């Protein structure tokens, strides 16, 4: 690999402490510049993936506004008796016929 900085150094001349410090500072600055470039690229990648996650959340919220239920938790619904089962079935069938979309029971609450 050809490095123009090395051509500027006279091979027979002795390097003074000041020149050595200058070359060392130049090398350290180059290392930090490369590290900053790597950090910038990884930050951009993480921001782009965050934007994709934000887009998924916004799409889910938009579907919820249009009447579709956003994916809820996977918590199991407990049905205690046959009357509750009949009420859930009637409600899901009615919703399916009205909205023409898939139905999923999110929660059931018994009213006394």
Q: Would you write up a description of this structure?
A:
With 112 residues, this protein is an all-alpha fold. Helix content is 64%, strand content 0%. The protein has helices at 4-8, 17-65, 82-99.
Q: Please state the overall shape, judged from the principal axes of the Cα atoms.
A: rod-shaped
Contiguous helical run count: 3
Mean pLDDT: 81
- Which spans of ≥5 residues are poorly predicted at pLDDT below 50? none
Classify the secondary structure makeup into a structural class. mainly alpha
Task: Report the count of strand segments.
Answer: 0
Please trace the helix and strand order, writing H or E for each element: HHH
Distance between the termini: 83 Å
Helix content: 55-70%
Largest sheet: none
Classify the beta-strand content into a percent band.
under 5%
| Rg computed from alpha carbons, rounded to a whole number of angstroms | 33 Å
Summarize the structure.
Helices cover 64% and strands 0% of the residues. The chain is mainly alpha-helical. The longest helix has 49 residues.
List keywords for this structure.
64% helix; 3 helices; 112 residues; rod-shaped; mainly alpha; 0% strand
Annotate the secondary structure layout:
Elements: H1 4-8, H2 17-65, H3 82-99
């Amino acid at each position: 690999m050809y490095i123009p900085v090395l051509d500027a150094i006279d091979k027979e001349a002795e390097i003074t402490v000041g020149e050595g410090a200058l070359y060392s500072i130049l090398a350290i600055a180059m290392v930090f510049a490369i590290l900053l470039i790597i950090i910038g690229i990884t930050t951009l990648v993480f921001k782009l993936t965050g934007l994709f996650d934000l887009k998924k959340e916004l799409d889910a919220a938009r579907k919820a506004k249009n009447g579709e239920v956003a994916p809820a938790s996977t918590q199991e619904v407990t049905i205690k008796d046959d009357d509750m089962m009949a009420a859930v079935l009637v409600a899901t069938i009615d919703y399916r016929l009205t909205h023409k979309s898939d139905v999923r029971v999110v929660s059931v609450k018994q009213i006394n």
